[in-house]
Amino acid sequence: MNTFRPAAYPLITVDPYFSVWSCSDTLDETYTKHWTGRPAPIYLAVAIGDEIYKVCDFDVNFVNRAQHSGRLPQTNVEVTPLSTVYTFENNRLKLTVDFTTPLLMDRLDIMTRPVSYIEYNVEIKNGKADNVRLIFGISSECCVDNSRRQIEFKRTGYSLCCGNTVQNPLATSGDSVLIDWGYLHLCDTSAYAMTVEPDEKIDITTTYNPYAEKPYLMVERNEASGVIVVAYEEIKAIEYFGEQIDEYYTKYFQGFGEMISAAKSEYHEIKQMCRDFDEKLMGEAEKYGEHYKNIIALAYRQAIAAHKLIEDKDGKIIFLSKECHSNGCIGTLDVTYPSIPMFLKYNPELVFGMLRPIIKYAQSDDWKFEFTPHDVGRYPIANGQVYGKNNRDKQMPVEEAGNMLLCVAAACRYSNDKGFFDENREILKSWTDYLVEFGYDPGNQLCTDDFAGHLNHNCNLSIKAILGIAAYGDLSGDNSYMDIAKEYAKKWEIDAKAKRGTRLTFDKEDSWSLKYNIVWDNILGYHIFSDDMKKAEIELYMSKMNRYGVPLDSRADYTKLDWLMWSTCIYDNKEYFEAVTESIINMINETYDRVPMTDWYDTKNALHHSFRNRTVVGGLFINML
């Protein structure tokens, strides 16, 4: 059995709505869940003749419980970037189940298909394999958000699907919510519907309540190996500044059915592409150690599937994040900022796709401020910022201006294309000038760690402003801005110096914090802060290490997962890197909170404060830049 034990295992990870996780050590220990923690049950069993062995059961009474011959013990589970593979075995048979969502960033035509695969293989140890059945089911709870809804079934030429009897796409927005429109598809013409109580096939011409009567889409396969395809038809993907946008796959296919046909016929080719990608990424990550490899494998699908990709009316990519389990904002810039390392590595165009909505909104008449917006709405409605209700005191002026400039600089560097900067030079200059005037010693304002409240004289936020100014100087070729950044950096090292390391705030000598923003000084090659300061900072962090990591700062014991990993890139110290990756593995393996990877947790007891399934885990790839 693999000793790596994620708090939650990704099974179906398509987008913020179509998301199913196993939140237990074994697949049959509890029902599977949506990332919000709400039920998203699936059923999985293998039968030999009249004997049925369950491996994932959403209800103890389901599928003729008297026929269940027992539990098929789980002997292993492995997480790779694109797959979660379970092995079950007893003295009669061995079952392998591979959950794969092909989130291949260099193939957007594949990545954006709302499809996930479940491949299975049964090996019979005693007897023939010609009497084997694989039984799979997925709950209709996955297609509605409200317990008062009624669902209907439809049979297509390629699937059985179910959805809300009242279809109103993009009618609501929110954070910890499920989709309430569209259709869940089990892509098999032999699929049927069944309820839990009583456990029997049902009439698909009748409507049902998913929460009370619990109907499921079911299929039985009489082959010892095969592939099951599940998909979600959202109808419309995003409302983008007043226009309801189709899903991105429609760029390549005439309709949902044509897309499903391609997804099924191309499976073996796609699966090989996934294997090749997994092997390449895992081989590269393993150079940093086994702990880092496991962390990266768990982060990959989560980072992508907290987004939705669309295309604007000009044919440009728009890649919108959902700020999961914090407020549900869409296109949040200070969520983009920590997430970009993974996307810089595999497709920098997706980073530009994250930034375009912020620029578009900032250039509209609706945005009244001289600094950068925080978001463009609440998922899936992207019609303009909702954070802080546009109250000036609740904004993040220095934070978001610095985020934008550094994201642009990084995306231009890794794409080897300055076109985005040239298109938006004027507004980027205005935000740089704002940082020149107000960024060095930020007033009492919020930063991305807004859960900690307003903070005056924030030294780490000052670093972001300084490097944002440097980024503009580098991109524009205007040396006066780089000179200002160098002058500020030199002054910063004096003003922020403490007895050990540097301060949390300029006015408190006995304070300290993780200076995660400084990583771009190294990655972008500016080198305006001294190595001596960076080295001393890491030595300070080493002295603050708890079992589950280094706290974010001197005010509390909690940390942020992304910033903790970023701190390992401040200065090259192998001992510190290994201590950090071990502490993160300790948290993942030992936390009692069984949720998709959190990024805000306590360094002494590993309990998560909040936040789950957020795209910021893309920041864990920063070491690979």
Number of domains: 2
- Sheet with most strands: strand arrangement: 6-7-8-9-17-13-12-11
Summing up helix and strand content along with how strands pair, one would put the structural category as: alpha+beta
Q: How helix-rich are the residues, as a percent range?
A: 25-40%
Number of separate strands: 25
Give the CA-CA distance, first to last residue. 32 Å
Instruction: Give the amount of beta strand, in percent.
Output: 15-25%
Give the CATH topology of the largest domain.
Glycosyltransferase
CATH architectural designation of the largest domain: Alpha/alpha barrel
CATH class of the largest domain: Mainly Alpha
Largest beta-sheet details: 8 strands, antiparallel
The gross shape turns out to be globular
Radius of gyration: 25 Å
Count of DSSP H/I helices: 15
User: Mean pLDDT score, rounded?
Assistant: 95
Low-confidence stretches: 60-66
In short:
By secondary structure, the protein is of the alpha+beta class. Helix content is about 30%, strand content about 20%. It starts with 8 loop residues before the first strand and ends in a 15-residue tail after the last strand.
Structure in words:
- The protein has helices spanning 108-111, 256-265, 267-286, 290-305, 333-346, 348-362, 397-415, 419-423, 425-438, 459-476, 479-495, 519-523, 531-543, 561-567, 574-590, and strands at 9-13, 19-22, 42-48, 51-56, 68-71, 74-79, 83-89, 93-100, 115-124, 132-139, 151-155, 160-164, 183-186, 192-195, 200-201, 215-221, 225-233, 238-240, 243-245, 307-311, 317-321, 381-382, 558-560, 600-602, 608-610.
- With 625 residues, the chain is an alpha+beta fold.
- It has 2 domains: 9-235, Beta-galactosidase, Chain A, domain 5; 288-624, Alpha/alpha barrel (Glycosyltransferase), CATH 1.50.10.
- The chain has an 8-stranded antiparallel beta sheet. The chain has a 7-stranded mixed beta sheet with strand order 5-4-3-10-16-14-15, with no helix packed on it. It has a 3-stranded mixed beta sheet with strand order 19-18-22, with no helix packed on it.
- The radius of gyration is 25 Å and the shape is globular.
